[in-house]
Amino acid sequence: MPRTLFDTIWDAHLVRPESDDTPAVLYVDLHLVHEVTSPQAFAMLRERGRKVRRPERTVATMDHSTPTTPRGADGRIPVTDPEAAAQIAQLETNCRDFGIPLHALGSERQGIVHVIGPELGLTRPGMTIVCGDSHTSTHGAFGALAFGIGTTEVAHVLMTQCLLQSRPSTLLIRAEGRLHPGVTAKDLILGIIAKIGVGGGTGHVIEYAGPAIRALSMEERMTVCNMSIEAGARAGMIAPDDTTFEYLAGRPHAPQGKGWDRALADWRRLATDDGAAHDRAVTIDASRLEPMITYGTNPGMAVPIRGEVPPSDGEASMERALGYMGLRPGQRLLGHPIDVVFIGSCTNARLSDLRQAASVLRGRKVAANVRLLVVPGSQSVKRQAEAEGLDRVFREAGGEWREAGCSMCIAMNGDQIRPGQYAVSTSNRNFEGRQGQGGRTFLASPLTAAASAVAGGIADARELLE
Amino acid sequence: MIRTIASTYVVLPIDNIDTDIIIPARFLKVTGKAGLGRHLFANWRYAEDGSPRPEFVINRPEAAAARVLVAGDNFGCGSSREHAPWALADFGFRAVVSTSFASIFRNNCLKNGILPIAVEPAFHKKMVAAAGAPAASGPPPTVSIDLETRTITLADGTGATFPIEPFPRYCLLNGLDELSFLLQQEEAIGAYEKRVAGR
After folding, report:
1. Is the interface score ipTM higher than 0.95?
2. In CATH, what class is B4-164?
3. Residue ranges of chain B with per-residue pLDDT less than 70
4. A186: which of A20, A364, B125, B182 lies 20 to 30 Å off by Cα?
5. Contact A31/B at CB under 8 A
6. What domains lie within chain A, and their CATH numbers?
């Protein structure tokens, strides 16, 4: 019977299939751990006197509550928030006690958990990958089944390397055509979420396919899969191809020599079979997409950048969102004043994102009223960007070039916007208060963010790129 | 262990209430679970100076005894933070009623003794209407929930059934931890690891 990509990976990881009374027991190949959602899980292990079953399948880093402020004279990143310091120290202790490899704050391979997994070659096709973080869907870009879990489940995986799961449904999203210049992977995923809604993927694993997806680089595919959760989906995935294999070749944890050849032969078989049916299917024409921007307080509330705030549907949620954002139906977004631009996050803080932002900012200045924060996704991205001189482009434009981390995407490390301020952000959530209590977020691509920083208000980068 | 819940309820009928609203990220810098109830809905519940907004639903006197929260569609969307159900449970809620739930949040609820009860829009509307306008006086509405029969019943006798998978239902009814089942799979997990290593 023909199987979808999801079916193939799911079936290969069943320790015990679902029965009438019990969920499936699903084996986890890679468990990523960070400081915010793991302390209570390790406490559960200690209470029960349990060990981590497969520490070598577990990798930890620090990203959420960590500062992105400059290093001190000793080369270390100072942690001044006592709560964050306690969380960081707890993760160090937990990793030491349980034998888990840790990329600690400021170390060579530290970074946002969903940036370092792929760049280290830990993320590979056909794997099951989990993390106590909803944006684990990012790793699906490699043809892996990757999803976020809660802290109790983190404990389950630490103890047993397995999860209890009910089989989700599948949703095929076919992106036809090709994105126009100046329209990015971020605009594609914002367009998809605007179309299917923030609950449109609930209970489903999305498979992205079609020529517009095939044409994307790995970093762009990660941007798309990253935001699958913003449509409510359990995971998002893309069948691997030569783009995937080229990205992985030579990465620190990628197989080498004969092992690589064997892996490649396996990976080439990872695709949805002809005639396999997804539970649902949606098609989107990528060639009709414009740069997108959000106007509301969830990622589905997005319009083309030259568009207007849509008429209110009369629902309390829409009224509330527009009230919070200080916007009214029919209002044009282009030119709307902003206070902060944030370029970063697991959605858009990889090298190609920074290159795009720099292409707009090179030789230009950030508007006087705007604070620009550029936060690389990892120490590795930071080093590469510096080797190319991108840090100088951002600094000379008047922006701040920071250490790696989640930063202003989740705003729990001191990087935040103030009440009432507006930000254009390349992150993934425009929820009320997400980037700081009372702060108001417009989600957009790195190109739009950079152009808006220069203009001092929401801007269409295509005008600057011509 | 949960079998039945009979309680007053309060309503927050807004769609897409995300986990950042349920508990903002600045309260996640903890290494334990205790006491998170005071941060529940913090950005809506407290004024900028930290004082409670008396009109906000869970600050109202009738919320103190309510074990059931009725919220809008797609409740719990966003992050995987289990701090969200920890905060709801710590505040005193044992069930949340909505027309749909975000998947990770729903999973997290079931592991923390909170019933995520999805009902049809008409039933939901009825529950919201019975609670009246925010300033309505009169006794708060009541509801009873029976996990054994998977039913939710309003004061006027109107009832509905709600979906819940057999396994979490069994665990909740019997006060069992889902982990104990997983730990019993030791042999199968070992066999799986051997099989895969041999491929």
Report:
1. yes
2. alpha beta
3. 133-137, 199
4. A364
5. no
6. 5-165 (3.30.499.10), 169-240+265-288 (3.40.1060.10), 303-465 (3.30.499.10)
